[in-house]
Amino acid sequence: MQYNSLRYPGGKFKAVTFSYDDGPRFDIKLADIMNKNGIKGTFNINGGWIGTSEADWHLRAEDIQKYILDAGHEIAIHGNYHRAPGMVSPCLGIQDMLDCRRKLEETFGIIVKGMAYPDCGIRVLKGNNTYEKIREYALNLGIVYARTLGGDNTEFDLPNDFFAWMPSAYHLNPHVLDMIERFNSLTEDDLLCGQPKLFYLWGHSSEFDQLNNWSLFEQICDKLGGHDDYWYATNMEIYNYIEGYNRLVYSADEQLVFNPNLFPIWFEVDKKMFYVKPGETICLTVEAGK
Predict the structure, then answer these.
(1) CB 96 within 8 A of CB 45
(2) Which residues, in sequence order, are bridge partners of residue 200?
(3) 72, 79, 81, 273: which is deepest, by most CB within 10 A?
């Protein structure tokens, strides 16, 4: 065996996910455009601000349920009151994360373990804050991934560290449409050591309303949506699947593979595709000879 590379469900090598912050009412229009193009995403909600602002600028709980959760998207932690963990004491950082998680779980009756760092997140560290300390207490609060900012993942790579998950592009990046064209044009021959690719877009839906440029988002979704060979998933679905792949158990000679997960996993070995069902053990030599 030379290289063993993850493949997304169905053996696909490209995936798309979106991440949108703060829970403004414009998320309803955003989600509708995404739905029409078959795109899934994660909406990062400030628990303390659900339906509390003037003129209902923030989504109400019933809107989040109807237009986001019931439509197949997910919600994630964005701080109860949008406090950047790098800018506040660990006490306040922990409180803001935990209160947000509890509010979302109690309101919607679901388990919420994903997050996008609010405000400047881990990009600015004051006092005795370090990324390692913030990562540790987020992990201890049951959080499993956190999207960060501060650059573009222009190679569309999967994260090495899920607590510093860098998206591909901000939706107002002047080169975003060119980046999508480059992503769309990728072939399996372009993959470095066979590793799959992910286009991860982030932003705030309110910006499209403020700038009166919803047509840009429609263009983005039109270019990224509707590809039969893409996997459209939420942030948590991508995290869970990658972690499932990492949990595969191999024999010492790496010819037997056991899948301990509750879902199937696709992967490629030396340009041969494999599929292992939940609880199944397969022999790579036998499977490759079929």
Answers:
(1) no
(2) 17
(3) 79
Long-range contacts of 173-179 (CB under 8 A, 24+ apart): 176/201, 176/220, 177/219, 177/220, 177/223, 179/152, 179/154
Residue 212 is encoded by which pair of tokens? 């009166």
| pLDDT tens per residue across span 132-171 | 999 999 999 999 999 999 877 889 999 999 999 999 999 9
Amino acid at 41: G
State how far Cα 268 lies from the chain centre.
23
Element holding 17 (H helix, E strand): strand 14-21
How would you classify the pairing of strands 14-21 and 41-45? Answer: parallel
Q: Which residues pair with 266 in a beta bridge?
A: 7, 275
DSSP single-letter state for residue 65: I
**How far apart are alpha carbons 261 and 6 in whole angstroms?**
15
Rounded Cα distance between 276 and 248, Å, is 9
